[in-house]
Write a structure and sequence with these properties.
Two copies of one chain form a homodimer. The first copy, chain A, has 420 residues and is of the alpha/beta class. Chain A contains 15 helices and 16 strands. In chain A, helix 1 crosses helix 8, helix 5 (76-91) packs parallel to helix 6 (129-141) and helix 10 (241-253) packs parallel to helix 11 (275-284). At the A-B interface, strand 2, helix 10, helix 15, strand 13 and strand 16 of A face strand 2, helix 10, helix 15, strand 13 and strand 16 of B. Strand 13 (366-371) of chain A pairs parallel with strand 16 of chain B.
Chain lengths: 420, 420
């Protein structure tokens, strides 16, 4: 453990120094570095694929699950996507240095905010080599230094990608230590990283629930995290039937394994007549429907299973939907307050007062009115890129783009003013 | 300990319910509640003073320090100040519900931010009864529910103030449980509060360093905190002598015991000629000056002590100043990067490029140019009220007003849009 701590302290010191230098690096140099990474990735694609082949061989030897192997695998198309992703991030506006709300105060001073990098970001993620490039690029563009810890199964791929990154930083005159990969797979290093509050300003875990939960429980450093996505669509009594069915179908069936998919549908008792139409379409698309007793009664000719209490608290991430008939807007919002994970909820209604109440009173990172939950996404919101979706309340909520990787400081411009 | 946990869970459940109801309470009701508290405080001043007399009697019996007793004591003037403080907070604009950056996206949806309360705030503070009213008022105005834990020496005063608050909330139709005081002085309750991450969204400690350090170390709930204020003034070679002397004198001598007072003066070697004038004025005001060797040499006829390495890392909060002569802007920023607590630093210079570099490269919650560090204050910045100054990097930095007690959610307004 002492060795692990020493190693992390060394990386931490280098990162802190790099983060300080990053405050002097202009947008052009950061963009040039990112473009150079893209060029070098394409030029060195055979090295990248050879390293990935070593990881895939080890994955075979260790009988890794097919889904994990799919995420681990690189091919020319995926490397090209990685390179294009870097160019996209280079093309985004730089959030750093932006000054806002600069106003004169009665004392004569001007006071405002300047957007600045967070500092040193620790990234802990699973065995997906593309995350190495993506996370490093987002941290770099937002002016931060990062320490990357990817899943050990991807270590060969990650090493090559990180080396290409550091070479490009060097060429562009950006401090190399702005991107550091933990090259050892020793698990004690993760523990040491989570405790390194002297060096790290924030840790961002990217991956499944168990990874995120473990990081959150153990970290002494602040964590920006995403937990469950138990998202609800509420069809109000004043909903248009076609709009309601379209939104519910899209929210459930557009993609199943994503955090912004609907997991529970709430519907006002006055419009249960929508259910046969909607449930029929869902079942036709292969969705298993689990409903409350009223749902089952409303869909007598359809194969609807009776939902258990557990269903309301379950993030299926699969072709399963629970449906509950509610008596009122308040009952819908009570259900959401009890079971929602605070990710995304949407109401379908043509009634102004009802929609306004939902918008104000539902406490989720995204609250929508007449739109599919599937829009809760950094690209759809116009962030250009997304490092994840935060279900925390402090600092940043919902889709996290470059701005979420920055903070603000106060700036004061005076002419010699003193306090009297 | 089980009893303490049960008690905190009960308060937490009530607070969570109140926080949900608070999202439906409009500005008028919140303001009316605050104005009613002010009226009731004035009407019941004899009860408040009688309760405070019990606390003061116990303080005498327990031989409390004079400084602590001074903070604990109430009198008619202090109660009136409390009441006026409440009226001031009632008069501030309500940050909750403000919608910003609402834009159309290519998909047709409108996306923006809505400002919303944090939820449930735990306040842990020392034996200052005025903090009970002040903290409760700021939490209430920002739409939060709060659980207050004041120092046990003030328990009688706090109970009366909290009861008045709850009576006023009731009269104004605001949920009483939006303000709850922990009425028992059992220390286990603090431990249980710090662990109550199921109910609390944030904990704000207010008080001395040891209190804040203890809360930060033990809390499982996110903490907004203020640690040290080791603030620097850097007098550049391009500084105007009179401006430099005025700012340095004000930053040091306007008040000694405050976190935004200068603790170390850095001065460029080309303008050490300013030192005899400045140091003479400081000594005349009763300040002890501890300088580096060059400072001592530049002030031969003045009583300047030689600074030790420890001085650069010390927050005096007293009539003591350390002075260091530096070779360059970079040397000044190196010193700041090493020793600053990240609170407030200021540069005095007439040179544009030098000032711009300082403004961008110094990483503190407030960075100033030609103004006294003493301006780092919620009232001077125009926040209207201040719950404290954050030296954290995430969520909120520097003076924290009502907005710092809120967060934002994404809102989406659609017309039936779905993802394709």
């Amino acid at each position: 453990m002492t060795e692990a701590i020493d190693m992390i302290n060394l990386l931490g010191q280098r990162a802190k120094l790099a983060a300080r230098k990053m405050r002097m690096i202009d947008t052009h140099a950061k963009d040039e570095a990112l473009q150079t990474v893209a060029i070098l990735l394409r030029q060195n694609i055979s090295d990248v694929l050879a390293a990935n082949a070593l990881d895939m061989k080890a994955a075979d030897d260790n009988k890794l699950e097919a889904a994990l192997k799919d995420r681990l695998a690189l091919n020319p198309e995926r490397v090209e996507m990685m390179a294009q992703g870097l160019e996209d991030i280079a093309a985004l506006p730089d959030p750093v240095g932006a000054i806002s709300d600069l106003v004169y105060r009665p004392s004569g001073i001007q006071v405002g905010h300047m957007r600045v990098p967070l500092g040193v970001i620790g990234m802990i993620y699973e065995s997906r080599p593309n995350v190495t490039a993506d996370a490093a690029a987002l941290c770099l563009k937002s002016g931060n230094a990062c320490i990357l810890r990817g899943g050990s199964e991807a270590i060969h791929s990650n090493r090559v990608i990180a080396n290409i990154f550091r070479l490009a930083l060097h060429e562009a005159g950006v401090p190399e230590d702005a991107v550091q990969l933990i090259e050892q797979t020793d698990r004690a290093l993760v523990g040491a990283l989570l405790a390194a509050d002297e060096y790290l300003d924030v840790i961002i875990p990217r991956g499944g629930k168990s990874l995120v939960a473990r990081v959150s429980a153990d970290a002494k450093v602040p964590v920006i995290k995403h937990l469950d996505g138990i998202c609800h669509v509420y069809i109000d009594k004043a909903a248009d039937e076609n709009m309601a069915v379209n939104i519910a179908l899209n929210a459930k069936t557009h993609r199943y394994g994503v955090c912004n998919a609907m997991e529970t549908l709430l519907i006002h008792q006055d419009v249960v007549s929508f259910l046969p139409h909607l449930v029929g379409d869902l079942i036709a698309k292969g969705v298993e429907v689990r409903g409350c007793e009223k749902t089952v009664a409303a869909c007598k000719d359809l194969a609807v299973n009776l939902a258990s209490d557990e269903d309301w608290a379950t993030e299926y991430l699969a072709a399963i939907l629970s449906i509950k008939v509610v008596e009122s807007l308040d009952a819908a919002m009570d259900h959401i307050a009890t079971f929602s994970s605070g990710h995304t909820e949407t109401i379908v209604t043509a009634d102004y007062a009802t929609g306004q109440r939902f918008l104000h009173e539902v406490d989720s990172s995204s609250v929508m009115w007449n739109a599919s939950t599937r829009f809760a996404d950094g690209f759809e919101y116009g962030l250009g890129a997304e490092i994840g979706i935060s279900t925390d309340r402090l600092h940043v909520r919902g889709p996290v783009g470059l701005e979420g990787l920055t903070t603000q400081k106060w700036i004061v411009l005076g002419h010699g003013e003193v306090r009297s």
